[in-house]
Write a structure and sequence with these properties.
transcription (chains A, B); DNA-binding; 138 residues; alpha+beta; binds manganese (II) ion; homodimer; 3-stranded antiparallel β-sheet; transcription regulation (chains A, B); binds zinc ion; 6 strands; Arc Repressor Mutant, subunit A
DNA sequence: AATTGTAGTGCAACGGAAGTGCATTTATTG
DNA sequence: CAATAAATGCACTTCCGTTGCACTACAATT
């Protein structure tokens, strides 16, 4: 609990009750989280608050956004000390076509790509799709 | 004109007037196309028709869908003989943060990635974002 | 050529998800 | 405590993708 408050404060996010709950919820999840997930988990709270919490978290580097190709924005907590802005720090994501869950593969960085003359890369997104660990074990 | 009809027929798509026009429009474009682009280009035609044309094209392997992270689905013609379904045939895409256009880099295949035990990849999407050739030349 | 069936097109409406303006509540600080 | 700033809640909007159903054009069949 205290660690969460500290983590948020460190990142310049005021640790309100709601924010701590959302952080906790995300920390306990092994998969990337969509706004609707949080909405379902905290039915009493207003969507807007949850939405803005995610945006604040993102902006302050508490979470990173994940575009897994489903058309729904997902989010996951950043590693401590991660620097999502840096191109090197970008890891790949895996989306399971079976259970529909998306996970961070933080160990797997996006390889360097040689671009044609004139192209300057600032950011990258690599998503693999297929069958996840859990689903293939069954 | 005749080539377009042939191409469509080959792929099991009946070459209606509208479809030929849309194909032509996409062939003349150097960048990936969104539904709204086509909508603007063919204001007389109905959205639904254009939408379904794209879906038909996609399903029959005439175009491939591109998720460039903007939240808007884009499409581009497939290379002749391309096999989008095959994992090896997947090329990367580049989205320009300046002009907002997305291009296929068909020469640049997505590199092979070692996944952790249990994960089976069936598909992949790699998008680089930054400044494109045209924009960096100015 | 008329009939029948199928595929394509148009209109209208729906639904999910992201986002915004503004009022209200809660926290901070002097 | 008053004054101020930040967070939350409600209502409403926009954008995009999608679907149901009616209508039309086309192709095959008799
Ligand atoms: Mn991640
Ligand atoms: Mn492409
Ligand atoms: Zn799975
Ligand atoms: Zn550009």
């Amino acid at each position: 609990m205290k660690e969460i408050e500290q983590r948020l404060t460190e990142n310049g996010v005021r640790p309100t009750a709601m924010r701590i709950l959302i952080y906790k919820y995300m920390a306990e999840s092994e998969v990337a989280i969509a706004l609707t997930d949080i909405e379902n988990a905290f039915a009493k709270a207003d969507r807007t608050t949850l939405f803005r919490t995610l945006k604040t978290f993102e902006q302050k580097g508490v979470v990173h956004q994940i575009d897994d190709g489903t058309g729904v924005q997902k989010y996951a907590l950043c590693e401590t000390g991660c620097n999502c802005e840096l191109e090197q720090d970008l890891h790949l994501h895996f989306h399971c076509n079976n259970c529909n869950e998306t996970v961070c593969l933080t160990e797997h960085k996006i390889p360097n790509i040689n671009l044609p003359e004139g192209y300057v890369a600032e950011d990258a997104n690599l998503v693999l799709k297929g069958i996840c660990e859990k689903c293939s074990a069954q």
